Amino acid sequence: MIGIIDVGGGMRGIFGAGVCDRLLDEGVDIPYCLGVSAGSANLISYIAGQRGRNFRFYTKYARRKEYMSLQNSVHKHSFFDLDYVYSTLTNSGGEDPLDYDAFARSDKRFVTVATRGSDGKAQYFTNADYRRDDYAPLKASSAIPGICTPCRIGGEDYFDGGVADPVPVEHALADGCDFLILVLTKPVDFVKKPEHFRLAYTHALRDYPAVITALNTRADRYNGGVQAAKRLQRDGKAIILAPVESRHMTAFTRNPAALARLYEEGFAAAQQIVRLFR
Q1: Which of 72, 168, 65 is nearest to 112 (CA)?
Q2: d(CA 40, CA 141)
């Protein structure tokens, strides 16, 4: 089974949006989709067949203060208002709703990674965890610790999936994938360093000590996941798509020209996937 993993990366996730739009244009049907953080949002629109929807979120809605702003941080204690993104805009009566019926009809397997607040371990949500106008797993997977308030589901607080399993290659293999497409948002030779602002997030997350521990070791898991994908690629069992130069773009980038370039780079890079299906 072929699987695609989109690791997200805040606004850098527009690279994956370009990949997904190219797949829709070319009619490429990938049966297993695993998303981390913004990568989950990319992939759910891909599964629903909504070309261009992700691009609008990155380039149009993200420019609004309701989407992300210091004002949100002050009044809602969350720089990204995930309720605005994944409810107000995304629900049936929203400005840009997800085509839930198309998503529910799809036979693609959808997995969304989040990090449990109680133990700092990964939680893998699936299609069955989604309901019409209830996209809580997307919020959970995107709740950046210290930047966003956690998302509460079933009595558990969840944070960004990139904390516990930033490059979930091993999980995709365990789920039965024998060929992987890994979509990164940093150059393929990027080596993640230990987290900055450790003192700040240690204070902000003092009620979640396991998440602090997971953040302190996240770089090792990211680098290990990329190395695992590179080994698979050498064995002919994976391809890695990554932007050539995005290392100076942050997760909060809103520069329209930079975002458009990264989208186009993802769109072009997806030609490697198209060739697999021809």
Answers
A1: 168
A2: 8
Which tokens in the block code for residue 74?
A: 């002050």
Instruction: Say which residues have a Cβ less than 8 Å from residue 105's Cβ, sequence separation at least 6.
Output: none
Mean pLDDT of 88-107: 98
Predicted confidence at residue 247, as pLDDT, reads 67
Instruction: Report which residue type is found at 94.
Output: G
Q: Which of 200, 201, 168, 172 lies closest to 184 in space, CA to CA?
A: 168
Residue 114 structure tokens? 């989040």
Quickly state the pLDDT bin for 74 (edges 50, 70, 90): confident
Q: Using alpha carbons, select from 148, 130, 146 the residue that is nearest to residue 138.
A: 130
Residue 273 has φ and ψ, to the nearest 5°, of: -75, -45
DSSP string, 141-205: HH--BTTBPPEEETTEEEEEHHHH-SS-HHHHHHTT-SEEEEE-SS-TT--PPSPS-HHHHHHHT
What's the per-residue H, E or C state across 5-26?
EECCCHHHHHHHHHHHHHHHHH
- Residue partners of 196: CB distance under 8 A and separation at least 6: none
Contact, 244 vs 264, CB < 8 A?
no
